Amino acid sequence: MASRTTFEELPSAVRTAIESHTGRIHRVDPVSSGLNSQLAARLHCDAGDVHVKGLRSDHKWAWTQQREAEVNPFLKGISPELLWRVKGSGWDILGFDLVAGRHAEYSPESGDLPHVVDLLRKLGEVELPPIDLREAGQRLSSYVDGPSQLRLFEGKSLLHTDLNNENILIQGNGAYMVDWAWATRGASWLDAGYWVIWLMAAGKHTAEQAEKWAQRVPAWETATPKALEVFALANSRMWREIGGEDPDFWTSRLVQASQEWSEHRQKITQR
Hints:
Layout: H1 12-22, E1 25-30, E2 39-45, E3 50-56, H2 63-71, E4 82-88, E5 91-97, E6 102-103, H3 113-124, E7 134-135, H4 136-140, E8 157-159, E9 168-171, E10 174-177, E11 184-186, H5 190-203, H6 207-214, H7 225-243, H8 252-270
Parallel strand pairs: 7-11
Antiparallel strand pairs: 1-2, 2-3, 3-5, 4-5, 6-9, 8-11, 9-10
Helix pairs in contact: 5-6, 5-8, 7-8
């Protein structure tokens, strides 16, 4: 989790550079959600409202700013538009069109779930952009039983990979997917798989309920039972390593959900 810096704490040169895009800034509203940014705020400005997110240029995750900037032009209608970028004085800041929405609600009865299905369907129709992206297997390579299993995750689809409900903004009758720091290349069904875990962790779905929603995403049908079993087990191992033993830490929900899903997938393949 990145430590936070307020907008007022930015170097004056950075704030001046931002104002060259925004005009006079009337109000700054800090944003508490999101774990990967040192700066996150909503700016209400002469040129219109924007959402800004940033990292110091020497931060270990600084490369994620470049990833978001590169992938954004390929996400029309899926993600808010990147309006400008400011680099200098030790900072890298991205300014996005502000979506005045709310975070998605993932409970089984939520009316937001069809919006997520629609977003994943749209994303599945996006051609893989000609930019440098990490392979899906790279993130899971330490959690599979041998390199051969990583081939199950290979593909030529653009993936979000972090289907946290806070990364889905609901606005009216539509929705947007935000925070593309971990955009990845891989098999088309993987995002639906990541969504299953978050439906269980954030929405308290059973594994069966979560998979019924994932099945509405066309790409899900391309996953073999073996691929799903391996993916679920790899995520279970990963979250167990990340989550540790603290039951109050936010990852504890993901540890439990990924374990339950892995057990569910193993039962299916053993039938």
